[in-house]
From TrEMBL:
UniProt-recorded name of the protein: Spore coat protein U domain-containing protein
Keywords: Signal
Species annotation: Tistrella arctica
Domain of life (superkingdom): Bacteria
Top-level taxonomy: Bacteria, Pseudomonadati, Pseudomonadota, Alphaproteobacteria, Geminicoccales
Secretion signal span: 1-24
Length: 111
């Protein structure tokens, strides 16, 4: 039952940003979340930066507009926790430039 709700939330969130993906840069494809963290990246914003490690050995950060003290940041963090807990692969996108230095979309993929 819980799994159905989690996937329903993921589908809803994915659908709400579907229009943005056309302009987004795909940073990582079909990778797994191996570690999550909330803390400071550069000493700003109340130690609420969200970082996550991926199965390819890289570390990514959510865009600084989407921290743990921001509503969208908490939603994206929930998606990261879901992907980590259920071991679901994700695609990661950057909507703010193409550098992938911080990201703004997390898509849960099929098993």
């Amino acid at each position: 039952m819980m799994r159905r709700h989690v996937f329903g939330l993921a589908i809803f969130l994915a659908a709400t940003v579907a229009g943005q993906t056309a302009w987004a840069t795909l940073c990582k494809e079909n990778v797994y979340i191996t570690q999550l963290g909330v803390g400071t990246r550069d000493g700003t914003d109340s130690n609420s930066d969200i970082a996550f490690d991926l199965s390819d050995g890289s570390r990514m950060y959510l865009d600084t507009s989407y921290n743990a003290n921001d509503a969208v940041g908490r939603v994206l963090y929930s998606q990261l926790v879901t992907a980590y807990t259920l071991k679901v692969p994700v695609n990661i996108y950057d909507n703010h430039g193409s550098r992938c230095d911080d990201v703004s979309e997390v898509w849960l993929m099929r098993f």
